Amino acid sequence: MKLADLRKLSIKQNARISFVLAGGLECVITEHGLAQVPGLHAVPTFNLENELASAREFRFEPAGVTDRKHPAASRSLTREEVARLLGPPSATAAAEHEDE
Q1: Which of these, 4, 15, 14, 9, lies nearest to 59 by C-alpha position?
Q2: What mean pLDDT is predicted for residues 20-26?
Q3: How far from the centroid of its chain's Cα atoms is residue 26's Cα?
Q4: Between the chain's N and C termini, which has fewer beta carbons within 10 Å?
């Protein structure tokens, strides 16, 4: 699973996807596919791809119009559940792994 895969999924599902980083910060991928780290005020000492590789739990929040009386529920998913949402790896991803 790559950051680009999650970015595409967030756009396709019109959802915000977040996961916790090792330093206690959180990465939020917006419904527009932008990866943001709220609370980061300096140049990071980490790589988001590496942090994603160690993430085990993800939170999905619908990004559509919110109804204050009936807010859309966020859901927590494991890495395996997110991988199923992403579907089978593409042929190009498989080719990249063969080169390693």
Answers
A1: 15
A2: 90
A3: 10
A4: C
The mean pLDDT of 59-78, rounded to a whole number, is: 79
Could you tell me the pTM of the whole model? 0.77
Delimit the domains of the chain by residue range. Answer: 3-92
- How far apart are alpha carbons 6 and 17 in whole angstroms? 8
| Eight-state DSSP code of residue 87 | -
Write the DSSP assignment of 8-76 as a string of letters. HHHHHHTEEEEEE-TTS-EEEE-TTS-EE-TT--S--SS-HHHHHHH--EEEEEE-SPPPSSSPPPPEE
Contact 35, 27 (CB under 8 A): yes
Question: Residue 82 has which token pair?
Answer: 């997110």
